Amino acid sequence: MVEAYILITVGTGEEHNVFDALGKMKEVTDVSILYGEWDLIIKVKTEVIENLDPLVTGKIRNLHGVKTTMTMIVAKSK
């Protein structure tokens, strides 16, 4: 299992729409709206690392309102 955190910036006023859309994705285990440089943070899980790229580039970045993402793959967790 591969876990990653993804920081997301969105267009003005798009936070709640993107939040709702991300919450419907089966790979997204947590989603939060932030204040600051980034607008949202999500935690995702995929079976293998090869599934992470299509999730980020094909699904998340193609959501209406998403401007940029930064993905951080978890090395170790408890």
Provide structural commentary.
By secondary structure, the chain is α+β, with helices and mostly antiparallel strands. 23% of the residues lie in helices and 38% in strands. The protein has helices at residues 15-23, 52-60; strands spanning 2-10, 28-33, 40-46, 66-73. It has a four-stranded antiparallel β-sheet with strand order 2-3-1-4, with helices on one face. The two termini are 14 Å apart.
Rg of Cα set? 12 Å
Order of helices and strands: EHEEHE
Count the E strands: 4
Largest sheet: 4 strands, antiparallel
User: What class, by secondary structure content?
Assistant: alpha+beta
Strand content: 35-45%
Number of alpha- plus pi-helical segments: 2
The largest beta-sheet arranges its strands as 2-3-1-4
What is the typical, i.e. mean, pLDDT?
97
- Global geometry: globular
Helix content: 10-25%
What's the SSE blueprint?
Blueprint (H helix, E strand, L loop, with lengths): L1 E9 L4 H9 L4 E6 L6 E7 L5 H9 L5 E8 L5
Antiparallel strand pairs: 1-3, 1-4, 2-3
Task: For this entry, give a set of tags.
78 residues, alpha+beta, 4-stranded antiparallel β-sheet, 2 helices, 4 strands, 38% strand, globular
Short structural description:
The chain has 78 residues and is α+β, with helices and mostly antiparallel strands. It has two helices and four strands, in the order E-H-E-E-H-E.
